[in-house]
Amino acid sequence: MVTYISVGLLGLLALSIPVGIVLFLLGFGVDQFFSSFPLSRALGNMVWTSSNSATLIAIPFFVLLGEVLVRSGVATRTYAALDRWVSWLPGGLVHANVATATMFSATSGSSVATAATVATVAMPQAEKLGYDPKLFSGAIAAGGTLGIMIPPSINLIVYGFLTQSSIPQLFLAGLIPGVALAFAFMVVVALICLIRPELGGVRRTFPFPQMLRALIDLVPILILFGLIVGSIYQGWATPTEAAAVGVAGAFVIAAFFGGVNLTMIREALLGTMKITAMIMLIVIGASFLNFTLASAGLGRELTAFMEGLGLGPFGFIMVVVVLYIVLGFFIETLSLMVVTIPIIVPMVLAQGYDAIWFGILMIVLVEMALITPPVGLNLYVVQGARKSGSLNEVMLGAIPFALVMLAMAFLLIAFPQIALWLPNALQ
């Protein structure tokens, strides 16, 4: 059965069939060939139960919030402000790419939206100022991955929904690793550009009064972050309610800067519907596939296989890390999470690991999947924003950042308190 799923998944994806449809087709295949019961008769119930959750309503709200910020020009203002504060570092404007992605991640919840925003704003500067296209574009692709780690994160919401874990606790757990990854990305950029200064373009400085005035353009993002995350942690709002408040705040900020008009609203709503429909198709399709796999006995097969290896907790978690790295080469991140969580998480918990901690470790591993070919979505998003050059340049530029993520995964395994300290401290 495992061979069927692996070959079928890769084969159907190679035919460019949408991921959500692929998951349904695999579910029907499991029903036909591996089950003696007509599992497909439960499809209607699975579609209803997998989508009938108030928690999932937060997804379109967070997507809409990001769309409003992008299309109203707030993201462009944020990028320009950070340019004035970090472009003096070795690597110059590359640091603004990472810093903008970090701040936008604190409101967007989506890695692809974050990467698309920063790429659209930053790419015109790369050629004009003489930056190395590999490092510049790789930093944008890597910075975009922070959208699923730094709260609020759509992927963490989905993880909490599927594992019945506390979403506020997951948000807290992702904060320190997310900020640490952003800082590590900037350190890597600085080191590379100290060794190879020609890769970093021109280091620019700005008058201090101009830098102070630029801080005004950072205030809206900070207010939104405080509004959303603060209301969740204070217990004033659920993640769904906080997302709705965030959307209202985004519209107020956009109106303040004169960015609200009928065209912007129409495009933001259309973009939200497209992204939300894609996410929900994947969630529902994966739920149906997971149901058929569980009914056909795959969970028992995998459990028996892992037990047969005779590994202790550390050896087990290392096998899981390798599994996610390999699967991440071929499967889109949200699909990878939704398909594997119902099978892997119970086994992880049986080894004595914490569900909140494993959620953050999983996010780091699927972040790597966003910038590793052949299915690294952020690579294609950044390449789509470029006017010239090949996808290979973006892939090469992302390699140092993928290695940083791998190092963070091992640090989380060695020091679980990196993720658990903040949730435990504020519990």
TrEMBL record:
Q: In which family does this protein belong, per the annotation?
A: Belongs to the TRAP transporter large permease family.
Its recorded name reads: TRAP transporter large permease protein
Q: In what residue span(s) does the TRAP C4-dicarboxylate transport system permease DctM subunit domain sit?
A: 8-418
Listed GO cellular component terms? plasma membrane
Q: Does the keyword Membrane apply?
A: yes
Question: According to the lineage, what is the superkingdom?
Answer: Bacteria
Presence of keyword GTP-binding: no
Q: How does the protein associate with the membrane?
A: Multi-pass membrane protein
Function, as annotated, reads: Part of the tripartite ATP-independent periplasmic (TRAP) transport system.
Q: Which GO terms describe its molecular function?
A: transmembrane transporter activity
TM region(s), chain numbering: 7-30, 50-70, 135-158, 170-195, 215-236, 242-263, 275-296, 308-327, 334-350, 356-382, 394-422
Give the quaternary structure.
Answer: The complex comprises the extracytoplasmic solute receptor protein and the two transmembrane proteins.
**NCBIfam families this protein is in?**
dctM
User: From which source organism is this entry?
Assistant: Gymnodinialimonas ceratoperidinii
Key words of the record:
Cell inner membrane, Cell membrane, Membrane, Transmembrane, Transmembrane helix, Transport
Q: Which InterPro entries match?
A: DctM, TRAP_DctM
Entry's localization field: Cell inner membrane
